[in-house]
């Protein structure tokens, strides 16, 4: 059920208020009439006309107040009171000003019709009283009145009436606009549970058109506000979820960062240990390089000694070969001696045989022959021993030669191995030198890596601090999202009080 328009916003209420005010003006006019009655003794006129008019006004006020008829009666009553005052002062010209004053009072009604009624009444009064005054009927319009003066008065009254009619219509339109606006606002408020923004003023005027445009704008704004509130709710939920995710992510980042800081510190410590070990390895490699170079020099010296030994063995082999050749030559000579001994033995045997044949003459010769044979036998035996010795000498020489050949081969192989070892050791020396350089580079790199690790650990501490700050910001954002949701709920509740057609 719509809430009724407040009485103060209706024209009827305004008419009632104006009627009460005009009753007060009539009472003032009656008091004025009583005051003027003492001037020329017009008490009877004041009591009958003035008092009768006020009494009739009260009767009509009780019966038809707020109506057009009562407003027109008030207009006529004003002109009657003005005519009474003019007649009481015997037509004094200044008293005619009351006509214009009382006409102006009628503007309060914001109705042109009472003004027209008052104009007609005062016009009839002027014409009638002009005629009656000309006939000396005992009434007064003006001292020294002429028809021209009446026309001048009539002209001014018509002009003022015209202006007042225009102002009254303007005032009525404004009042009507206010009343329609009040009715529209009352329909908007309704029973007070909300504001209906679909209501519009059903009267066309620039002000009401602007008011309707304002309502259109408000309706669009509230509709947009409701939609924005819904979007804000969704956005708030998203922000709240994002804040929660951000807080969880920040906490996880903080944990991971703390773990990474610990890992980087351990890595930095391990890198420092590696750097120290690399430096130790570099020093050990340098020492190994020095020793390898010493070993390389020793191997070169061994190679030279082995080469010299090989040369000496070759010379010894040649000497053994020469000795073997001499043994062969001796064996050949011994063979010749053995052959001579065998022949000598054979000759001694033949000589002994011949000596035996010779008898005593050959006994001495036999003894010589026997000695010669014995000598030849011992020579053959010695020769056999020499041959046996030479044979053993040849075997020894052969064994020595074979051993020397084997030694020479072994020494040659040893020389080759030594040379290969020297080359390998040279390569090892080169590799060790490369390892020394790399170890130095590794030591330098690990030292730099250790410094970088410490720097990274420092930055990770800063990242941890940032993650902690992000966690705090996420918690604050979550709190603000909750506050935003509360504000949104309040705004939605307030916006729900405005009913729109969208």
UniProtKB/TrEMBL annotation:
InterPro entries (alphabetical): MCPsignal_dom
Transmembrane feature ranges: 21-39, 45-63, 68-86, 92-109, 116-133, 145-167
Protein name in the entry: Chemotaxis protein
Tagged with keyword Isomerase: no
Broad class of where this protein is predominantly found: membrane
Domain of life: Bacteria
PROSITE patterns: CHEMOTAXIS_TRANSDUC_2 (PS50111)
Keyword Cytoplasm in record: no
Its membrane topology: Multi-pass membrane protein
Subcellular location: Cell membrane
Keywords assigned by UniProt, alphabetized: Cell membrane, Membrane, Methylation, Transducer, Transmembrane, Transmembrane helix
Domain Methyl-accepting transducer: 228-464
Protein family per UniProt: Belongs to the methyl-accepting chemotaxis (MCP) protein family.
GO cellular component: plasma membrane
GO biological process: chemotaxis; signal transduction
């Amino acid at each position: 059920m719509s809430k009724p328009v407040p009485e103060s916003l209706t024209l009827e209420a305004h008419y009632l208020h104006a009627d009460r005010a005009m009753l007060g003006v009539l009472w003032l006019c009656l008091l004025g009439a009583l005051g003027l009655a003492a001037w020329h003794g017009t008490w009877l006129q004041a009591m009958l006309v003035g008092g009768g008019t006020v009494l009739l006004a009260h009767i009509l006020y009780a019966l038809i107040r707020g109506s057009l008829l009562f407003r027109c009666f008030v207009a006529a009553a004003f002109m009657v009171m003005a005519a009474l005052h003019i007649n009481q002062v015997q037509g004094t010209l200044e008293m005619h000003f009351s006509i214009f004053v009382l006409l102006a009072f009628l503007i309060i009604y914001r109705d042109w019709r009472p003004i027209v009624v008052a104009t007609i009444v005062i016009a009839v009064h002027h014409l009638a009283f002009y005629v009656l005054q000309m006939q000396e009927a005992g009434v007064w319009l003006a001292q020294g009145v002429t028809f021209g003066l009446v026309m001048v008065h009539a002209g001014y009254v018509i002009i003022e009436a015209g202006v007042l009619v225009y102002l009254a219509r303007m005032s009525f339109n404004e009042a009507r606009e206010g009343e329609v606006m009040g009715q529209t606002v009352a329909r908007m408020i309704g029973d007070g549970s909300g504001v209906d923004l679909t209501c519009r003023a059903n009267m066309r005027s620039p002000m009401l058109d602007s008011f309707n445009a304002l309502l259109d704008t408000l309706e669009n704004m509230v509709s947009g506000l409701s939609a924005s509130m819904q979007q804000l709710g969704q956005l708030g939920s998203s922000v709240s979820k994002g804040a929660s995710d951000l807080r969880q992510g920040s906490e996880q980042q903080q944990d991971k960062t703390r773990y990474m800081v610990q890992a980087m510190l351990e890595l930095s410590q391990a890198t420092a240990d590696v750097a120290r070990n690399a430096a130790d390895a570099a020093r050990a490699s340098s020492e190994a390089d020095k020793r390898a170079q010493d070993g390389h020099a020793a191997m070169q010296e061994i190679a030279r000694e082995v080469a010299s030994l090989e040369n000496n063995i070759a010379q010894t082999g040649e000497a053994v070969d020469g000795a073997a050749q001499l043994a062969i030559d001796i064996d050949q000579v011994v063979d010749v001696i053995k052959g001579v001994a065998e022949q000598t033995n054979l000759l001694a045997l033949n000589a002994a045989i011949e000596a035996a044949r010779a008898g005593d003459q050959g006994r001495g010769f036999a003894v010589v022959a026997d000695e010669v044979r014995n000598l030849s036998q011992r020579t053959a035996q010695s020769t056999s021993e020499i041959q046996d010795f030479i044979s053993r000498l040849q075997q020894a020489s052969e064994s020595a030669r074979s051993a020397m050949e084997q030694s020479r081969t072994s020494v040659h192989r040893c020389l080759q191995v030594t040379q290969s070892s020297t080359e390998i050791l040279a390569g090892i020396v080169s590799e060790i030198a490369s390892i020394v350089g790399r170890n130095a580079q590794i030591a330098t790199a690990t030292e730099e890596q250790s410094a970088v690790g410490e720097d990274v650990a420092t930055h990770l501490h800063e990242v941890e601090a940032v993650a902690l700050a992000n966690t705090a910001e996420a918690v604050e954002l979550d709190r603000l999202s909750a506050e935003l949701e509360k504000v949104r709920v309040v705004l939605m509740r307030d916006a729900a009080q405005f009913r729109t057609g969208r």
